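debug: dumping io for the single-chain case to check the tokenizer round-trip. Nothing else runs in this session.
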Amino acid sequence: MLKRSPVQVHSLQPHQVRSKLLISGLKWWESSSGRIHRHDKELNALFPALQICADNGRDWPPPVLCVGPESDFARLFGGKIINALACDSHGYLQVRQTRQPVIEYVRSRPVEMGDERVWLSYERLIVPGSLSSNRELYLVLNKIERVLRDLDAVSA
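debug: decoded output
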């Protein structure tokens, strides 16, 4: 990613969310408090679109462990894990400190996509999650609203 272009992140309130996917994720968190259980039907329905990041207390921003195969990011980047999109880590830090969901509208820096760079605008829900082993995770749902080509990169 290019250092010259800032990431723009704006907090959203639940009533401002347009994505049904994010609304479903927020409802799941409210009903489960983020506890991950193998037979959780609501979570299993979200899993194909879910991005899971580790909260190991050492790495920052938190490393992406997996990206759901039906997520917008997986479709756009061919399943490749894009850790660079987590570099605007304020939302992750807020979730770590408050153990509450964070909803954001993000305009990314240019991100490499094949031979070109693109700008992404997307809604993001970050919720704290935990396994029965008490391992802490970040569960992230993203809904891309706009993909723009970086024309400077194309003409270079």
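debug: round-trip ok. The domain at 8-155 is CATH 3.30.450 (Beta-Lactamase).
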